[in-house]
Amino acid sequence: MNKRMDTIRISKKEQMVDAAEALFNRYGSKRVTVEEICRKARVSKMTFYKHFSNKAALVRHIRDVYVEEGFRKFDEINALDIPFAKKIDRMTQWKVEFGARINADFIREMVAVDDVVADVKHRLLNNLKDARNNGEIRDDIDPEFLWLVTEKLSELVKEGTWKEVFADYSQYQYQARTLIFYGLLSRKDTEKSENCSLSS
């Protein structure tokens, strides 16, 4: 009986998460109310508050799911036995496709909740240091400096000022990552990447 009740609870929670994600990606989280989420998910407000203390907690939950998805993809690509330049190509393509799925306002609202920044920084710096030790990226650019640049680019997302240049968030993502990572590549890897692009 308890097992069955747990299954029902999980199902209700998933319904709310799916409903909220659909609404947030259409309108942004700020314009959506708990009542609207409950109506779309076909659950009561009492059920909502059994799972989430408030709407902000639900936003954090969805953000955490997205972050974990990103980390899984990052680790999966990083484990491939391919040159660093190719890894960046794949990571960038995934980020562009991922960004295209999500409402730009919702991305900005999620980025404002930044309690996973330390984990992101740790993973990124380790990846860059490994690539530098393997001679795949320039050794005259400090990964810590790159992190500062990344933080500044994140501020453009929080402020929404990227919209002054780009109509679509995925375009911004692609440009930002190209600027950062191709500036890191050693000359020979940059030439290889350019030759691949010309021949394809």
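Next protein, fold it too.
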Amino acid sequence: MAGSLSDYLENALMLHLTEGSAYVQPLHLYLALFTVAPSDAGGGTEVPNTNGYVRQIVDAWTVSGSNPTQAQNTNLITFPAASPAGWGTILGWGLFDSLASGSGHLLWWGDGLNQAIGINGVAEFLPNAITLTLD
């Protein structure tokens, strides 16, 4: 599942490179799930912070080669079981700089998912399932 940089991150990196504006790397990256996928501009509909849902820390990435343009999640990412109700159909994901749902900056996002999470369902991403690519 490849994704795209958000407008926020593109702007922050451009200003960092061209104007010396400091971009501070977040302490952690957090994976969020969406029932309506976000876009470069943000938006989308994140799963509500109820029924066991909470963003997951994703700090382990494998970068390919000596001229890296791609990174993939290194570890299995497992969300808690949806309970006492399901979360709906997950259509997208986003990486944020904040644990709290509805806060922080969207940094990277992806769509192309179609995973229904019913009662007691668990969303998981195997190692190498999320790919961050620069072109």
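About the second fold: The chain has one helix and eleven strands.
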